[in-house]
Request: fold
Amino acid sequence: EAQLAESGGGLIQPGGSLRLSCVASEFSISTNSMSWVRQAPGKGLEWVSSINSGGPNVGNTDYADFVKGRFFISRDKSKNTLYLQMNSLRADDTAVYYCARGNYYMDVWGKGTTVIVSS
Amino acid sequence: EIVMTQSPATLAVSPGERAALSCRASQSVSINFAWYQQKPGQAPRLLIYGASTRATGIPARFSGSGSGTEFTLTISSLQSEDFAVYFCQQYNNWPLTFGGGTKVEI
Reply:
């Protein structure tokens, strides 16, 4: 069964940086597009970023406007791991961050990792 | 950005009853549309994609319909495990956008 496991969340001061990791098992992130989606406390789902896999756009990335220039998605195929580098964190970045398989609909989700931005 | 609006925000139903959840897109998304279920403390689970195709392992009591701007998720006979929050999502245009959710409660 395909699974995803996120890590790297925590309490961070405004302006700080964090790197989230997401390890995939039972499937390869090399041949699948991947995404990060977040959920602020008590709120709905919010797409953050995606990275393509396959075709002429291998490795193309997309970002929501609210993280563009601050967050960066990447992957290490040898470790079958997806990353989200988050810089210049703000209080409104506080959320559970999920990684998910797919960059259209998302069919496999991790349990999420919590990021709290607070002084 | 395409805005997804779900209604109602809360739906009170009894086990065994039928539930119909709605989602409206601010512009056409064709059938590039999905439904997810989320239970408290859990990750979302894909129910429906392509507006009407059930994801792997999803029971037949869940069905999706619609195209363009109007979509419906129908749960034919609610089971206790179906009480949850349901989100819609469009993937026709970037950025990907989700609805605000419908909470199905007893």
About this structure: Residues 33 and 102 of chain A are 5 Å apart (CA to CA).
